[in-house]
Amino acid sequence: MINIIQSRENKIIKTVRSLSRKKGREKSGLYFAEGLRIVRDSVAHIPDEIEFLLASQTFFNNNKDFVKTLDSTGKIVYITEDKFFNEVCDTETPQGIASVIKIPHKKNIDLSCDYILILDGISEPGNMGTIIRTAEAAGVKQICLINNCTDIYNPKTVRSSMGSVFRMSFADIILDDIENLKNSGFTVAATALTNSVAIEDTNIKGKRAIVIGNEAHGVSDAVIGISDISVRINMCGQIESLNAAVAAGIAMYILKPSMEM
Amino acid sequence: MINIIQSRENKIIKTVRSLSRKKGREKSGLYFAEGLRIVRDSVAHIPDEIEFLLASQTFFNNNKDFVKTLDSTGKIVYITEDKFFNEVCDTETPQGIASVIKIPHKKNIDLSCDYILILDGISEPGNMGTIIRTAEAAGVKQICLINNCTDIYNPKTVRSSMGSVFRMSFADIILDDIENLKNSGFTVAATALTNSVAIEDTNIKGKRAIVIGNEAHGVSDAVIGISDISVRINMCGQIESLNAAVAAGIAMYILKPSMEM
Lengths: 261, 261
What we know:
Two copies of one chain form a homodimer.
Chain A: E1 2-5, H1 11-18, H2 22-28, E2 30-34, H3 36-45, E3 50-56, H4 57-62, H5 64-71, E4 77-80, H6 82-87, E5 97-102, E6 115-120, H7 125-138, E7 142-146, H8 155-160, H9 164-167, E8 169-172, H10 175-183, E9 187-191, E10 197-198, E11 208-213, H11 221-226, E12 229-232, H12 244-254
Parallel strand pairs in A: 1-4, 3-4, 6-7, 6-11, 7-8, 9-11, 9-12, 10-12
Antiparallel strand pairs in A: 2-5, 3-5
Helix pairs in contact in A: 7-12
């Protein structure tokens, strides 16, 4: 069904506007994914989770066939003036099409899988999205969040995950869960610059969990304390640190389970 | 020497404003590096290349001792109203201190080193800066640019390189230079999704050059055609591509020369 919204004070517009903040997302249980590609991904992978779609008037005029395919999913497609659409987006040049999606319940920690990524206090939304995308590519089965990571449903995170946020399994965990991982046969490897082994000299067998820390402070002392091993990405030259998403990518690829596992 | 600038029409302000564009940088032979940390890096690593420094009035008032140490380098430190300073920056919240630096001459390709990165049409300034930073960390000795890469002296690139742009050697190259690399004993490995070997199964010995391609189109056909080998970062799940800076980081670390070379 296609509905036209003509007022900025419309309830739908107000709801969507509230989704740029975590508080708004928690209240409504919804998040916002803007852009043609990510909307396509949401329709392909999580059609049942879509609450409704929102398109700008210009997008609708230029893409009537595509909007009809969205309409045929049975979800309501709201059409609104370009200026109202742009106001609810945090990008400078919105594409004019968005999905509003139900926030799924977080999962329990998955002790049966072979490859877990633990994120310890990641704070920058763009890094978080890029890390989620890279984790899916590296074969990570679940991402566990500890110590107040930035919200995975922040619009910037959703966008930079390129749709991976729809497909990845997430769990909120505490220190006890890391103990549980170890008791279930996982090797827990924290990334750390000091008191650590060069990552290329690490030879982990079997199930594993890699810990990536906060952009400024690294992995917390408590998590390093209960990890089985600390690993380090050696750096040449005058470099003091790598970009967090790049470091996570290198660690996840170098430490991923080999095929013959 | 500390000089106060009181007008937006001052020649120094006009020059600095022009450095946000490549044309302005080419005309003056200068580039702009904003932020406390990057200014510190420029004073530490390339003091002779600094043309002058620029500080906002507020930065000056709050950091008089630091500005005195800048003054003691013998360079002119210009102080200007916050609003003029902010106008010449492309960041939303400038820190109030910047170096204006001479653009060095590009080098010739360095056939004597062991590890070269070739960037083929990288277009996004932030990616370029992050790749330069990661290259220094991975032990790359020179970055060679081919097929209209984004300018390495774009302010966003300088900033996201975290100072690596000051220390890295750069060469502009053409296809013939890649032939020269091969004739000089380099193995040239292009990253490519098709007709390629999994990167972890690649065993390159001796001197090597890794090619990273444009964010949307990858490595150009001509460069793939003359490379010795094409390598692929395998991706699980529904992922079609990795972020270019992440992919470059993974490739540079997995293919870097081992210590025993």
